[in-house]
Amino acid sequence: MPAATNLAFGRVLLKLSGEALLGEKPFGLDRNFTDYLATEIREVHELGVEVAIVIGGGNFFRGVSDTARGMERVSADQMGMLATVINGLALQDALERAEVMTRVLSAIEIRQVAEPFIRRRAIRHLEKKRVVVFAAGTGNPYFSTDTAAALRAMEVKAEIILKGTKVDGVYDKDPVKHADARRFETLTYLDMLRKSLAVMDGTAVALCKDNDLPIIVYDLKQKGNLRRIVTGEKIGTLVKG
Q1: pLDDT per residue over 69-112, tens digit each?
Q2: CA nearest 27: which of 65, 1, 53, 54?
Q3: The 131-135 sheet, strands edge to edge
Q4: Nearest-CA neighbor of 185 among 241, 237, 220, 239?
Q5: pTM of the prediction?
């Protein structure tokens, strides 16, 4: 399919939480949902958008979860990194079954199942129109996959971070618990930090602020949203400036 000419973004970084891959399940992976994600990503890939992805591991293990309580933080975070590798491989499988060439690049060395992260190699994969999945966060404990998303986005020169969530943007309070919650159409980075809005952690937001990297927070489960964003529709909450 020829690339579209009316794209708002040519290269994006999609940030997915591990919990997103739960779908309708309480733990692990929902194959139906990974297949849905693959379809959504294929649609924008076919338009000519270069797609990089950072995925969390919370559907299996998070270093700051209740399960990890009492564990040494470094060990717990390393377990979380390995969970992101599992998710990266699952997403790669779904994408390649959808006929989208995909590479998983890991920040920790695990050569039998994923390529090591090398910045120039990642960019070359994107230039060759392969989807790139970044696994294992930054490879360091104490840093979230949100921070990894900001870092990788800047390293591969993505134009924007697209943060897929279960709600349709950023609210002043939890919209699930509060019927009067108000959604923001736009926010500044400082708004995010000052209001302690729990969308991305402070380190990730500060990195984006220092490098003028915009973020769009949108509803991942609304079919077609990813395509709408890359073709210029105003979806979710835009964070910039």
Answers
A1: 889 999 999 999 999 999 999 999 999 999 999 999 999 999 99
A2: 65
A3: 115-116, 102-106, 131-135, 50-55, 11-16, 160-165, 215-219, 237-239, 186-187
A4: 237
A5: 0.94
Residue ranges and CATH numbers for the domains of the chain are 11-239 (3.40.1160.10)
Q: In angstroms, rounded to a whole number, what is the distance separating the alpha carbons of residues 48 and 59?
A: 31
Residues in the chain: 241
Q: In terms of Cα–Cα distance, which of 31, 2, 33, 8 is closest to 20? A: 33
Tally: H helices and E strands in the chain:
7, 11
Distance separating alpha carbons of residues 91 and 77, to the nearest angstrom = 21
Q: Where do runs of H (alpha helix) occur along 115-168? A: 119-127, 145-155
